C-alpha cells in the first residue's frame, strides 16, 4: 500500500499536475493539504474520473485538507481537532483506508514568531498530540500524514543557521514534534533514511529548487502497530520541477500488507 502526502498549494489551479501524478504513480491513499477552495469547489468529479474517491474539508482561499483513496471510499472517522471550539481553520481530517487509519493534517505555519500565530501553532500541536495519544491507545495501525511545518533536525534544513528564529525551526516547535516521538510515533522517512539530506519543500525564489536549498516539512508519523510494515519511502522531486507546480513535492511511503 502506497500512502502519499502532497501540499498541492491550490488544488484547482494545479489539478492537471495532480491528476497526471496520480496516473503516473497510482498511490493507494493520498493526503492533500492547502486545497485553497471551499467545499463546493472541490474537484471531486475530476478525481473520481481519475479513479479516486475523496473526503475533504475545504476553506475559501486558505488551508483545506483531503484524503483520496484509489478504487474505494475512504471511511471518515473525524474532522477537526478537539480543544478549541472556536477554531474554524480546516486543517485536519481522518479516515480509514484499506485497513489503515490515516490522519491528514496541515499544521499552522506560525510566523511571525513570537506572536499570536506562533501561539496558535503551539496550541494546535498540543491538540494534535492529544488526538495522537488517543489513536495510540487504540492500538490500530495509524499514520499521521501531512505538512507539519516543522524541520525536526538540522539535517532537515539546507542552512540551519538562517532558520533559527523561524516558526518552522524554533526550539519550541521541534520540541513539540519530539514529544510526539516520545509518545510512541516514528518518523517514517527518517527511520528509513537516518543520514540522508531529504527535502520536500523549496521556496519559489532565488532558484531554491535548482540549488537544492530545501526543507523537510512533510512527514509521516507511524504508530507502533504500523511501523513494522514500513518498507520504503521517497520524494517525487520531478513534480516540483514542473512549470506552475506547488512549492512542495509529493512524498510517499510503502506499507506491506498486514500479515
UniProtKB/TrEMBL annotation:
Keyword tags: Hydrolase, Magnesium, Manganese, Metal-binding
Superkingdom of the organism of origin: Bacteria
Site (Interaction with DNA substrate): 248
Pfam families: Exo_endo_phos (PF03372)
Residues annotated as site: Transition state stabilizer: 149
Binding sites annotated in the UniProt record for Mg(2+): 7, 34, 147, 149, 247-248
Taxonomic source organism: Devosia soli
Endonuclease/exonuclease/phosphatase domain segment(s): 4-248
Protein name: Exodeoxyribonuclease III
Native organism taxonomy: Bacteria, Pseudomonadati, Pseudomonadota, Alphaproteobacteria, Hyphomicrobiales
Gene Ontology terms for molecular function: double-stranded DNA 3'-5' DNA exonuclease activity; metal ion binding
Family according to the record: Belongs to the DNA repair enzymes AP/ExoA family.
Catalytic residues in the record: 106, 147 (proton donor/acceptor), 248 (proton acceptor)
Amino acid at each position: 500500500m502506497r500512502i502519499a502526502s502532497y501540499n498541492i498549494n491550490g488544488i484547482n489551479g494545479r489539478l492537471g499536475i495532480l491528476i497526471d501524478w496520480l496516473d503516473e504513480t497510482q498511490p493507494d491513499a493520498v493526503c492533500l493539504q492547502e486545497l485553497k477552495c471551499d467545499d463546493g469547489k472541490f474537484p471531486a468529479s475530476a478525481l473520481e474520473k481519475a479513479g479516486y474517491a475523496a473526503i475533504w474539508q475545504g476553506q475559501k482561499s486558505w488551508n483545506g485538507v483531503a484524503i483520496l483513496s484509489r478504487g474505494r471510499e475512504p471511511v471518515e472517522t473525524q474532522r477537526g481537532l478537539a480543544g478549541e471550539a472556536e477554531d474554524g481553520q480546516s486543517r485536519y481530517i481522518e479516515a480509514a483506508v484499506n485497513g489503515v487509519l490515516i490522519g491528514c493534517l496541515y499544521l499552522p505555519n506560525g510566523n511571525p514568531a513570537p506572536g499570536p500565530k506562533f501561539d496558535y501553532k503551539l496550541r494546535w500541536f498540543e491538540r494534535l498530540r492529544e488526538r495522537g495519544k488517543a489513536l495510540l491507545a487504540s492500538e490500530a495501525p495509524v499514520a499521521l500524514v501531512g505538512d507539519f511545518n516543522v524541520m525536526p533536525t538540522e539535517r532537515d534544513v539546507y542552512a540551519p543557521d538562517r532558520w533559527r528564529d523561524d516558526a518552522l525551526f524554533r526550539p519550541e516547535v521541534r520540541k513539540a514534534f519530539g514529544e510526539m516521538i516520545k509518545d510512541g510515533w516514528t518518523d517514517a522517512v527518517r527511520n528509513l533514511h537516518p543520514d540522508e539530506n531529504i527535502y520536500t519543500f523549496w521556496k519559489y525564489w532565488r532558484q531554491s529548487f535548482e540549488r537544492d536549498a530545501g526543507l523537510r516539512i512533510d512527514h509521516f508519523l507511524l504508530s507502533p502497530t504500523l511501523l513494522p510494515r514500513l518498507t520504503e519511502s521517497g520524494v517525487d522531486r520531478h513534480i516540483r520541477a514542473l512549470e506552475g507546480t506547488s512549492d512542495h513535492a509529493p512524498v510517499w511511503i510503502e506499507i506491506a500488507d498486514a500479515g
